[in-house]
């Protein structure tokens, strides 16, 4: 029950999170949450603006005694990734998130939780509403569509914000202070294909890949997690000479490592035993390779109703080869920052159905030239089989500023509060700081947040004790903002 969420400490934050999670807010469908935030600011009597793309800006004057401090921007995004388990019945357009507590974690029932970035939004709401928290003048910036295009950050004009320091509350490790991030670009391959009728002496198998962890296609790309699209394609490749594709439907959002894939293949009845034995051998190998990272992986196949049409043989085989060749996972590591993934790609969606193909990828890099190098490699792979390949949604990375005054303040405060050094790092994910920095190049920026695990998947969860640690950190930061 969400009532137990409201009794967690700090109550001011968790209550705002519960309020927010009652409002549907999938990416690109933020009308309800925009109205919710606009009413929230207006009801507090604060200056509230909704810009032309839908970002909400709420301004609050400094508390008594804090008027001589630099104005800050506190920023989080309103939208959330909408992913659910296959067996979960849920409408993200109309329903609020159903949350529960399990030990030290807050989770959702069969869906993403929305802690990314709802906990950041709730933090800012709690501060805006409070009459007792010491803080400098605040511009609260709530952006839209961060998860599927960052169009909110891209659409924010350069003359709107007045703050000198931006606190982005979208990092998912509570010991990390973020000073940089990767940029990204969407790569979409499409084409039509010819179909043949399925001969009468053919039969069909339905293949399912499921039970994978999924997760964030940037922050978790280095963890060796299984990609359902690549696993499915590997199975098809193992019998490429004797099967033909009827349909493939795998993955979903670009920024989520795909968890499930379903395919229907057809073949001559005489090849049934060969295909069964090949599948069983390949499944055994895949499960052995992924036994540590994907212990719940399930791969099932069996007879199904024979469809009427199939992809023409030669093109179907070339498609399997192209998906096999398309890079997935880490492409290169940073030579400058230890343990940082520099460039990666996520083969996020493969749809082959009714004469049309659509393959979606998200390529990320902290180096712009490397991002485009990998994107071009993927484009070339699919152009070789006649696909039209489009680049879209490109956004820049965020270059670290290790000399910023707010970094020094936060580093010292973290040590004081926790008796250990924070992990100052860039991350392999798309934060809005890089985009915002193009219009506000002189604004100091920093990113931090509480522990959130499994973001972008139905296993998303927020750690209660970490939120308490983070909240104390936030309050100390607000009191310690440098003077003008």
TrEMBL record:
EC numbers for this chain: 3.4.13.18
Cofactor(s) annotated in UniProt: Co(2+); Zn(2+)
Example GO biological process: proteolysis
Keyword Ribonucleoprotein assigned: no
GO cellular component, one term: cytosol
UniProt-listed CDD domains: M20_pepD (cd03890)
Catalytic reactions of this protein: Hydrolysis of dipeptides, preferentially hydrophobic dipeptides including prolyl amino acids
GO molecular function ontology, one term from the record: metallodipeptidase activity
SUPFAM superfamilies: Zn-dependent exopeptidases
Domain Peptidase M20 dimerisation: 207-292
Superkingdom in the source lineage: Bacteria
Key words, A-Z: Cobalt, Hydrolase, Metal-binding, Metalloprotease, Protease, Zinc
Family: Belongs to the peptidase M20C family.
NCBIfam families: aa-his-dipept
Name of the protein in question: Cytosol non-specific dipeptidase
């Amino acid at each position: 029950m969400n009532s137990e969420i409201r009794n967690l400490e700090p109550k001011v934050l968790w209550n705002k999170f519960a309020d927010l999670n009652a409002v549907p807010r999938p990416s690109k469908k933020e009308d309800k949450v925009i109205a919710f935030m606009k009413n929230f600011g207006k009801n507090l009597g604060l200056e509230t603006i909704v810009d032309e793309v839908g970002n909400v800006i709420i301004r609050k004057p400094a508390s008594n005694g804090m008027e001589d401090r630099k104005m800050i921007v506190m920023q989080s995004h309103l939208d959330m990734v909408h992913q659910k388990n296959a067996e979960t019945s849920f409408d993200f357009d109309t329903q609020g998130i159903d949350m529960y507590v399990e030990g030290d974690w807050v989770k959702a029932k069969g869906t993403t939780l929305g802690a990314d970035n709802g906990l950041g939004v709730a933090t800012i709401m709690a501060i805006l509403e409070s009459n007792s928290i010491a803080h400098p003048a605040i511009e609260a910036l709530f952006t839209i569509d961060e998860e599927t295009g960052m169009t909110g950050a891209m659409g924010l004009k350069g003359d709107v914000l007045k703050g000198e320091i931006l606190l982005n509350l979208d990092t998912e490790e509570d010991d990390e202070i973020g000073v940089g991030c990767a940029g990204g670009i969407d790569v979409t391959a499409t084409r039509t294909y010819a179909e043949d009728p399925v001969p009468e002496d053919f039969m069909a198998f339905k293949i399912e890949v499921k039970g994978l962890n999924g997760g964030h296609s940037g922050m978790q790309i280095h963890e060796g997690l299984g990609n359902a699209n690549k696993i499915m394609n590997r199975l098809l490749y193992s019998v490429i000479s004797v099967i033909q594709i009827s349909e493939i439907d795998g993955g979903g959002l670009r920024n989520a490592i795909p968890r499930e894939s379903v395919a229907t293949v057809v073949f001559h009845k005489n090849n049934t035993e060969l295909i069964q034995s090949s599948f069983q051998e390949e499944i055994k190998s895949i499960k052995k390779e992924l036994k540590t990272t994907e212990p719940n992986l399930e791969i099932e196949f069996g007879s199904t109703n024979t469809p009427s049409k199939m992809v023409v043989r030669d093109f179907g085989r070339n498609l399997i080869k192209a998906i096999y060749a398309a890079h997935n996972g880490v492409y290169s590591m940073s030579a400058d920052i230890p343990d940082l993934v520099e460039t990666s790609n996520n083969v996020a969606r493969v749809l082959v159905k009714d004469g049309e193909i659509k393959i979606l990828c998200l390529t990320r890099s902290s180096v712009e030239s490397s991002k485009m190098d990998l994107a071009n490699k993927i484009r070339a792979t699919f152009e070789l089989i006649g696909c039209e390949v489009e680049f879209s949604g490109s956004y820049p990375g965020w270059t670290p500023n290790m000399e910023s005054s707010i970094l020094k303040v936060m580093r010292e405060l973290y040590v004081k509060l926790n008796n250990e050094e924070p992990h100052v790092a860039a991350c392999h994910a798309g934060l809005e700081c890089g985009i915002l920095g193009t219009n506000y190049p002189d604004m100091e920026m920093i990113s931090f947040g509480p522990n959130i695990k499994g973001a972008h998947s139905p296993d998303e969860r927020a750690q209660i004790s970490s939120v308490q640690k983070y909240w104390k950190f936030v309050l100390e930061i607000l009191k310690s903002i440098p003077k003008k």
